[in-house]
């Protein structure tokens, strides 16, 4: 794949062993995303989307194949190094927000910087919360926030360390259409203004319209859906 | 920014720990209560031992500082001679040598008659104090009367008493001797040694400034007088007090051991609580790990929680222990301030340190377990 890719999977397999059976969640997946690109991963339930996102996010290691971050092989890094890479380069937005209930909105946003003695973290966190429209809710605890607001706190948390890759698992799944659109606008802003690569798993057709590219994952096999213009090209010839 | 907030900024694990503990206050409180009880048990049992020892030492008085030298009747020696006394004086480095003659006499005072022990002592001031009148360094005339005898006969300084046929003026009433002593004067009369019409001495007491000095004197006297034959028997209580001290040392260790059991139980309770709470927070810990918090930081966070429980438990345990010590020392020794004796402060400090260490150790396994779970696993439901 191209040298400009920020994150890249090459021949990635993921197998789960349960008893005597082996389940292949990813089968020879090749994938790359460039900075400033918004990729949507679509596919039926159980097809391996979350598994793929976890491998991309250095949360999980492939059974076979190579993961490259910014051109360097990160497949066999130690847990500590992977954690550092996750912190520096990757922003995660989980389907269920996963906010920490005992911490306020701003503290949740600061969590990734919490153990790093980062003096500007608080200011960046406030700025991000203002940017996602929660400037008034900075000291609120998660149980005092609506689903959409929680999702926005989670997004702010993912952005606190200015990641180059933003991974989102069903970012709009729990949101109404309007809030979902706001989130997608924000993603678009990030990729355009800050050259962030956004990779989102979704069932949402609305998201599809914002994506530069859609890949389909069925039964662990990844296929490029192709851009609309490419499609016509293919069918045209 | 308040001091607490600054501290939290410096040690973020502490902030997380405090928040997590306040999540289930009852549970955290109960876990801390275990530590409180453990710390209280260790500290107060330690202090109890100190109180017992102090009480017993008061009872024993200066017994360890005295040795008693008596002629060995079995070998045919009935009296100690002036030469023996001179020898004893010569080998005694530190301390006062008090040669003593002894008999029983009929004491008459007006209508009252009683049988009393009479000691002839040249220098009773070396051994005793008077509560009334005085116990002179050189007793040349008159008699000193022991406290209980004086009380029984209602004797006062200036009264006259008759011992057998000889009349004495009472020049002093001796202080009550509480401790065990080789020569208990409470029921006796002390008269000038010259009033005995005999030579030689029935015993010699040596009072030294310390137990060690007494022991050295005993060794020296034994060497000097028992060189060729077993002329004298030397009775020293230093070894007994040493034994008693040793006994209290063992008793204290035993008491603290019992206290430690309660701390171990408290440690198990903390282990249980931390294990439960980390299992409940599995997903949260997974999120922390996923967004870039290192394994070691998670361990620190959970250890901080356990340490905080230990610290709070230790703090309140120490306060309760001081209160218990005040009551105990008031009741047993009538001096509550003895609670703040250095040994006791050491016990309290030791108990608090034990409490914190126990808590942190108990947090170790849950912390390690929670931190080493892979985030993908903990984020799956
Ligand atoms: N730790 C695991 N152990 C065993 N099997 C697993 C494990 N994780 C995932 N799988 C299996 O791998 C397959 C892919 O799972 P994955 O979670 O990636 O699906 P998904 O596409 O995200 O589905 P959904 O849309 O429902 O979230 C599923 O069949 C799942 O049961
Ligand atoms: Mg999924």
From TrEMBL, chain A:
Every ABC transporter domain range: 7-237
Annotated Pfam families: ABC_tran
Gene3D superfamilies per UniProt: P-loop containing nucleotide triphosphate hydrolases (3.40.50.300)
One cellular component (GO) term of this entry: plasma membrane
Entry keyword annotation includes Transport: yes
Xref: SMART domains: AAA
Keywords carried by this UniProt record: ATP-binding, Nucleotide-binding, Transport
GO molecular function, one term: ATP binding
Name of the protein in its database record: Antimicrobial peptide ABC transporter ATPase
Organism lineage string: Archaea, Methanobacteriati, Methanobacteriota, Stenosarchaea group, Halobacteria
Automatic annotation (TrEMBL), chain B:
Residue ranges constituting the ABC3 transporter permease C-terminal domain according to the UniProt record: 258-373
Membrane topology term: Multi-pass membrane protein
Domain MacB-like periplasmic core: from-to ranges: 28-222
Tagged with keyword Nucleotide-binding: no
InterPro entries in alphabetical order: ABC3_permease_C, MacB_PCD, Macrolide_Exporter_MacB
Principal location listed in the UniProt entry: membrane
Keywords assigned: Cell membrane, Lipoprotein, Membrane, Transmembrane, Transmembrane helix
Spans through the membrane: 28-49, 247-275, 308-333, 345-365
Superkingdom, natural source: Archaea
Protein name (Swiss-Prot/TrEMBL): ABC transporter involved in lipoprotein release, permease component
